[in-house]
Specification:
CATH class: Alpha Beta
Number of domains: 1
Distance between the termini: 15 Å
CATH architecture: 3-Layer(aba) Sandwich
Radius of gyration: 16 Å
CATH superfamily: Flavodoxin domain
CATH topology: Rossmann fold
Shape: globular
Length: about 190
Amino acid sequence: MTTPPTPHYLLLTTSTRAPGHIGNTEWLARQAAAALPAGTRQTWHHLARMDLPPFVDQRHTTGTYAPPEGDMKTLLDATLAATHIVFVAPVYWYSIPSPLKTYLDHWSAWMRVPGLDFKDAMGHKTLSLITTSGDRTKAQPMIDSVALCAQFLSMAWGGALWGKGGPPGAVEADAQALTQARGFLRAHAAP
């Protein structure tokens, strides 16, 4: 019998707020992460503060990609090392923020790096979303999009945690979101 891997959470914050300003979505994610069992490994990356080159689609030309370098290699390594990937993404125009879209586009490249076997590796992980917006229904298109990404790679869908956002600090008044945050990641703490 194989021992399941030790849980390791990769939390990718995707807000484009200026450094030093924690928005509603990151605040809610930090509440959820704080409720994980003591000693649970967490890796946080702020995508807007990383050098993410635009994705160049060569799937139908060369068909393969070289292994990534720089911050993209950092993200690939962190993605592969994690058992649970959590997108910490406020709703921007009914969708994901642009740094997260760039990161996701690079998944298409990583699936075509010779010898990497990215798609198979992702099928052993859980993908979750933590988000905030002024209205829950306006978050649904983004939630559906992220759930479809999980489905495409045969990942377990860990669900979405939504809180009422808006101006800075608004989510702190959302008692229901805070209660849900305390158990959201814990529900998937065992791989």
